[in-house]
Each structure stands twice: as C-alpha cells, then as structure tokens.
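#struct-help
A.M.: can someone run this one for me? Single chain, 79 residues.
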Amino acid sequence: MAGNLHVRNLDDELIARLKRRAARHGRSAEAEHREILRQALADETETSFDTLANELRRLTKHRPHTPSEVLLREGRDER
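D.P.: on it. Structure tokens below:
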C-alpha cells in the first residue's frame, strides 16, 4: 500500500541540495527523497514485544505496583 508523506517548512538550501543530489543520481527530487528515507531506515530493526516488556520491567522494578484485580475492583466500585 503506497502512502504520501508531506514534509513542510524545509530550508530553501536543503531543498536545493536535495535537487542537486537527485540530479546527480538521475532521479526526481521526490524519488531521491524516497531513496534517502529507504536508506536511512534500512538498518532499523523493530524491537520485539518481549524485549520492550523486559525493559519496562527493569525500569519499573523498584516502583510499587497495584495488582490488576485491585484496579478492576476499584473501577467496578466507582460505577
């Protein structure tokens, strides 16, 4: 599924540099923009849910936690 991305408030010099780079590569400025984004994000890895959950547990290890059943009961009692 293709989408659109609009980038606003770019510096004029940045736009000129993008156009020059695109010309060197024989592409339109839009195609060059897509290629820059593709390259920038190519090495990005998605962090797994388990890794994120473990990190959250580590960060909150020493904080007091309220059991979910207590929170549920309090929510029902408020109604």
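A.M.: thanks! Residues 12-78 form one domain.
D.P.: also worth noting: The helical segments are 12-24, 29-42, 49-59, 68-78.
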